[in-house]
Amino acid sequence: MGVCIDQGNLEDAYNRCIEFINTKGCKMIITPNTEIIMRAQKDSKLFQIINKADLVIPDGIGLIYASKIQGKGLKERVTGVDLMYKILEYCNENKKSIYILGGKPEVAEKACKNIKNKLPGVEIKGCHDGYFKEEEEINIIENINRLNPDILFVALGVPKQEIFMDKYKEMLSARIVMGVGGSVDVWAGTVKRAPKIYQKLGLEWFYRLLKEPWRYKRMMVLPKFMIKVLFQK
Ligand code: UDP
Question: Keyword Methyltransferase on this protein (predicted)?
């Protein structure tokens, strides 16, 4: 469907991140799932942003099935929440710093507190909730640059976070800007990740549907996606 996704597993994605952290310039990481790929079919801006990103990981089991059906080479799902965890572990061991932008008021703060408790070596430069006006954006960016974190995690939901990252990437002093969506809620403890068994069976989407049934409308695109994949084959 025209969206480029990096091949490789979690370890490969992590290694790319280490390269990014140790190279000049800000690199953008996007973590699309099936829903987002379908959205990008109608939203040309989102489509272009994903294809411009420096690392795009397949954060949805549907993408792996599609790739297998079409022989495109994606082998396993790489989730944003897992990659974020590994980046944080690296920060913990190498005294690197982060900033979290997004989530409801207090969610980013709670997430930072929990990160600090679990991984005390991570230097937390600051956080800001994700409910601000457009005219406040530039001040937020300037403040982030003043604090100069190595990594900026952005959790504003799709496609807001992708548009935001693309708009400010060139201005940012951070080495990585990564869209993490609901991962901040997982760190804050306000959303629970699916138990391991759901993850293993590729049913994390189903668990999310059980817990957040109002998402069913957004998820209606999943069967449409599979039909499209089969027809394209
Ligand atoms: N969010 C935000 N500002 C907004 C919209 C969303 O900070 O204007 C946050 C929201 O509170 C949540 C995160 O973005 O913490 C991800 O939202 P959601 O789960 O709806 O997005 P998804 O990751 O499913 O695209």
Answer: no
Would you tell me the crossing angle of helices 61-70 and 221-232 to the nearest 10 degrees? 10
Per-domain residue ranges for the chain?
Answer: 15-232
- Of 227, 233, 232, 231, the residue nearest 34 (C-alpha): 227
Q: How far apart are CA 233 and CA 217, in angstroms?
A: 26
Among 31, 35, 57, 185, which is best to mutate for testing ligand 1, by the most ligand atoms less than 8 A from CB?
A: 185
Q: Which of 71, 38, 50 shows the shortest CA–CA distance to 226?
A: 38
Distance from first CA to last CA of the chain, Å, rounded?
A: 11
pLDDT one-digit tens code per residue, 46-99: 999 999 999 999 999 999 999 999 999 999 999 999 999 999 999 999 999 999
Residues 97-123: tens digit of each pLDDT: 999 999 999 999 999 999 999 999 999
Peptide bond into 159 cis (omega under 30): yes
Strand partners, 29: 55, 178
The pairing of strands 97-102 and 151-155 is parallel
Task: Identify the CATH number of the domain defined by range 15-232.
Answer: 3.40.50.10700
155 within ligand 1 shell (Cβ under 6 A): yes
> pTM for this structure?
0.95
pLDDT tens by residue, 216-230:
777 788 888 989 988
